[in-house]
From TrEMBL:
Domain Methyltransferase, first and last residues per copy: 53-125
Keyword Cytoplasm belongs to the record: no
CDD domains assigned: AdoMet_MTases
Family: Belongs to the methyltransferase superfamily.
InterPro entries for this protein: Lys/N-term_MeTrsfase_sf, Methyltransf_25, SAM-dependent_MTases_sf
Keywords, in A-Z order: Methyltransferase, Transferase
Species per Swiss-Prot/TrEMBL record: Pisolithus microcarpus 441
Protein name: Methyltransferase domain-containing protein
Lineage: Eukaryota, Fungi, Dikarya, Basidiomycota, Agaricomycotina
Amino acid sequence: MTLPQNNQEYGTKEYWNSRYSDETPDDTFDWFKSYADLADDIRTLIPDKSARILMLGCGNSKFSEDMWDDGYKNIVNVDYSAVVIERMQARNSTTKPEMQWHEMDVRSLAFPDSVFDVAIDKGTMDALMTSSSDVWNPSEQVINDCVAEVSEVLRVLRATGSFIYITFGQTHFRKRYLTGEHAPNTRLEIKTLGEAFHYFMYVLRKDS
């Protein structure tokens, strides 16, 4: 795994293309928690195995593959690294041929309105925040990028859809991006995960 020289590189397409190019097609990496760690929560939040699910910034995580193996067969994966999308599509073309893979920026999704039941972000929004070193006073770019992602997610979610965001970011750093004028008619639920080191699951639900 190629580590960045500084955290700001996590927010660049160049870093991710370089990193994935240096890895083998069999290499995988899951931020924070694996699907096995979160399966009970995901099954509760998404009881309908036929729900259309958007995986934001999928990378080479096994999360969507493991969800597929657990019965979720309608998953669309997006990432702005063309390298990883090509590799993940090739890796799953035989065993999971219906799973979709698209090169796409989460801040500008190329989907029509209201076409997904659930969207999942596990660390992708966190990468958008790395261009600012001050979490208490994020830059205008960070705010705009995160608001753009949430706005796009809400646009492509159906009337009763849910956005599941998994992160290490505490509520006083993350809640600002999930509430406000760009997220009307929604309600936010927050669950703390882990013991010694806490992670958080934010569930932003659209109200029909």
